[in-house]
Automatic annotation (TrEMBL), chains A, B:
It catalyses: Release of a C-terminal amino acid with broad specificity, except for -Pro. SUPFAM superfamilies: Metalloproteases ('zincins'), catalytic domain. GO terms for molecular function: carboxypeptidase activity. Keywords: Carboxypeptidase, Hydrolase, Metal-binding, Metalloprotease, Protease. It comes from Cyanobium gracile UHCC 0281. The keyword Hydrolase applies. Belongs to the peptidase M32 family. This is Metal-dependent carboxypeptidase. InterPro entries: Peptidase_M32_Taq. It holds the Pfam family Peptidase_M32. Its EC number is 3.4.17.19. It comes from the Bacteria. Broad specificity carboxypetidase that releases amino acids sequentially from the C-terminus, including neutral, aromatic, polar and basic residues.
Length: 508, 508
């Protein structure tokens, strides 16, 4: 820091401590989900609440607001644009924190905890009516929150848009509708085309031994630059990626009985998240505690995990390379050759459950949720009509009718915690990954060819150069435009899917 | 809490938060030693320092001092003795914190960190002279610390005694000399007696496969009440036990190549520590954040781990029960029968290294260190004479001369961090365990018979009733007197060892 910016120095010190506290929280979260015994949950909840209170205080106190204002006052006309951007992002977040009535924050925290508990029971009992009152309350509180936050928004935004900002900065409903309309129009047709082809082999259920799955995951990571000095892989009930310090990256996976490829693909996915985190500009002291050292959006984050999961691990070339290893490990070939093996990575069959969906149907699950969130938050859809609306639209988009609400509108945890505005990021991840992949291929050649040659390191180097260091210097759409030279659209993703559907049909 | 004690309520709230922060620190420590990648160390150091600063602030601030004083003012003549004792212990700790010059605290923290780093190199290079300046500085700082703390001591204490208080409250040099003199007098003779007998079998080196050692450790814990809902066992470089929350207990072990029983015995040892922690009065809200909910001394803590390691796992009856399982797991019997198997748990041969010592020689390692600490801190022994003094006394006590300082006075980490006053607790653990065992046997019968019948649960129940719930209501010596009806002495331990030496010689 230049000596002429003492407030900036103090602000950096403040942010550094905030980051330390946040990363302590992440460590507790990691411990909780990997090794903590069940009875430790209540105490862990108290520990996390204590840290959350400290974090909130640090991010909304008058002393902090003074620091931000003093650093803004130090900004000269010739200040580096990165500094200006850092302060803008801090200012926006501070203004948002300050808009919120603390009573509402507490009420929301209680409603989320209550919503989660009620949802667990309602889903287990397949009883939407037991969950409806909690959902109604969460919607009301979130609308109230959006109303309070509106004062801090730099442009006019609808309630849903305001709630989506933390996940996808600067996103609008109109833009999402524009991006999603081609998906809703074209994906059902592609699904029908696939449905006409024979089902993927093997048709009989089989499994890979747990120890073999563990070995395969380790080999995958070893080939993709996993460094045990900076990284740790553990087991957890649900796979996740988690950054615990500037040189401390964790991922977790799980072995799912009856789903022989689940752990392998989840490892690829979570490692993609982690690579992005590892590539963010955090080693430079100027960046690490500042906003520019952070991921720019959940959509971009997801694009990085989906790149490694879908573009690489589900590619034909990757299947060619790994088929011998899987066959040798298992001692047999239930896939009947490499094409069958590849197709087992790409079932392309619509199903009821979002988290089990493949590339072709996944986005339709998201379109459905996006439309319903808008209906609930902005179009006065009565909560009790949610199951009917869900089932009707699900039939339209995916051709299936959920036999129960547990497999329908009760399947996700997000709404149970009042998390509205998050789902679209998952689909944006697919679009961004596809468009970035096109740019990558124009510059360094086809992904299939690089993967066939075992040169995933070239893919990493390109991402490390082109995508990861951008941090929050740009938002998601700006990032795509900067990297690909074109505005984000659904075209690259649809082109990719059409090609894949054709390729999979060959030799079926 | 009664409504008539509002300051006490506030104080409890304060202590509760302090305990939350301390347990967050423990979680980070656990993570650091089990899964954290090496590169995470620097950031973890910053996280721990932040928490340490917060803890120090909470334990020494004027606001906290006011709370303690207000709670003391609320104490009426008929207040429960437990409340009085809690406040006395808090007052003593607060007075000690307040005596210390913050500049000294910082200087000590730096010297400890420096001492540790220098010691690592000096030990690796077997170069005591490289470590001597750091040790000299640590001694000077610790003497200064003892000088500052003297003002808070309720009775006159020597510098070494003051430094030993955190580990062994109320201990004195004279008392330790009284307790240790019979050990120094009688153990060498016992060692000579054993040396005359043939060496324990198997004479050839062998090992147990890692997976078998893991299974044996799990089975051991399952038989000793390990509850996966409240406990977690992990791997770490050095075994330890760690309490992370009132219902969250962790232990770690390691498999040591070439030492087939190391993991098994370490599991027994660490589980003993954990059982004591689990049995402390922490489930009752009145106790958990208060001093009475804590372990009363390191010596008592060690007595609980040594009880399960030495009195149970190294007993003849235990060997009889487990020999078939070890033999079956290994597919052979390198011990040549149960007596050989039992003797492999009890080598009783003097060695150079404390942490590898058996029951017979362990205390002599401690006597040596205790004497040298007194010489360094209170008798002006020049630091450069430490190696010579070490080797001369080692020969007197254990009959061996260390071939290098790395295997002599450089072997332990304690002095490298200026930790003086800690070692005696290890030997006290043996004495306390032996004397408590005598009382237990008078009340519920011989340990050997109970172990032979697989009734370790009876041992646990007795300890859970007689020892663990005492917390810090009494100090270590008071605990022993309360549980056994006699003042602590070395007699029970020496009686036990004499019997064991005789038993081991049978059928040799």
């Amino acid at each position: 820091m230049p000596a002429a910016a003492p407030a900036l120095d103090q602000l950096q010190h403040h942010l550094h401590t905030t980051r330390l506290l946040g990363s302590i929280s992440s460590t507790l979260y990691y411990d909780q989900n990997t090794v903590m015994p069940a009875a430790g949950a209540a105490w862990r909840g108290e520990q996390l609440a204590l840290l959350a209170a400290q974090l909130h205080e640090r991010q909304s106190s008058a002393a902090y607001a003074d620091l931000v204002a003093a650093a803004e006052a130090e900004l000269t006309a010739d200040a580096p644009p990165q500094r200006r951007r850092n302060l803008q992002l801090l200012r926006l977040e501070l203004d948002r924190q300050c808009c919120l009535d603390p009573a509402l924050v507490s009420a929301l925290a209680r409603a989320q905890s209550h919503g989660n508990a009620v949802w667990q029971q309602a889903r287990a009992a397949n009883d939407f009516s037991a969950f409806a009152p909690a959902l109604r309350q969460l919607i009301a509180l979130r609308r109230e929150q959006a109303g309070q936050l509106a004062a801090a928004e730099p442009v006019a935004r609808s309630p849903w848009e305001i709630l989506a900002q933390p996940f996808e900065p600067d996103i609008s409903k109109a833009r999402l509708q524009e991006l999603f309309a081609p998906l809703a129009a074209q994906l059902p047709g592609l699904l029908e085309q696939v449905a006409a082809a024979p089902a993927p082999s093997p048709t009989q259920a089989f499994d890979l031994p747990e120890a073999l799955q563990e070995s395969l995951c380790s080999e995958l990571l070893d080939g993709w630059g996993y460094d045990g000095r900076r990284c740790q892989r553990s087991r957890s009930a649900h796979p996740f990626s988690c950054t615990v310090g500037p040189e401390d990256f964790r991922i977790t996976t799980r072995v799912v009985r009856g789903q022989p490829l689940s752990a392998f693909l989840a490892t690829a996915h979570e490692w993609g998240h982690s690579l992005y985190e590892q590539g963010l500009p955090r080693s430079d002291d100027h960046f690490f505690p500042w906003p520019l050292g952070e991921a720019t959006s959940m959509g971009v984050h997801e694009s990085q995990s989906l790149f490694w999961e879908c573009r690489v691990a589900r590619s034909r070339a990757f299947a060619e390379r790994w088929h011998p290893r899987f066959r040798q490990g298992l001692g047999s070939d239930p896939w009947g050759g490499v094409q069958g093996f590849w197709r087992s990575f790409n079932p392309l069959r619509p199903g009821l459950i979002r988290v089990e969906a493949d590339e072709l149907s996944y986005s339709l699950h998201i379109v459905l949720r996006f439309e319903l969130e808008l209906a609930l938050l902005e179009q006065e859809l009565p909560v009790e009509e949610l199951p009917g609306q869900w089932n009707r639209r699900f039939k339209d988009l995916l051709g299936l009718v959920p036999p129960s609400d547990a497999e329908g509108c009760l399947q996700d945890i997000h709404w149970a915690e009042g998390l509205f505005g998050y789902f679209p990021s998952y689909a944006l991840g697919h679009l961004i990954s596809a468009q970035i992949s096109e740019a990558l291929e124009q510059q360094i050649g086809p992904i299939e060819a690089l993967v066939r040659a075992g040169q995933e390191s070239a893919l990493q180097e390109w991402l490390a150069r082109s995508v990861w260091p951008l941090g929050r210097s740009v938002n998601a759409e700006q990032l795509v435009e900067q990297v690909t030279g074109r505005p984000l659209s659904s075209e690259a993703f649809l082109t990719y899917l059409r090609a894949k559907v054709g390729q999979l049909a060959e030799g079926a």
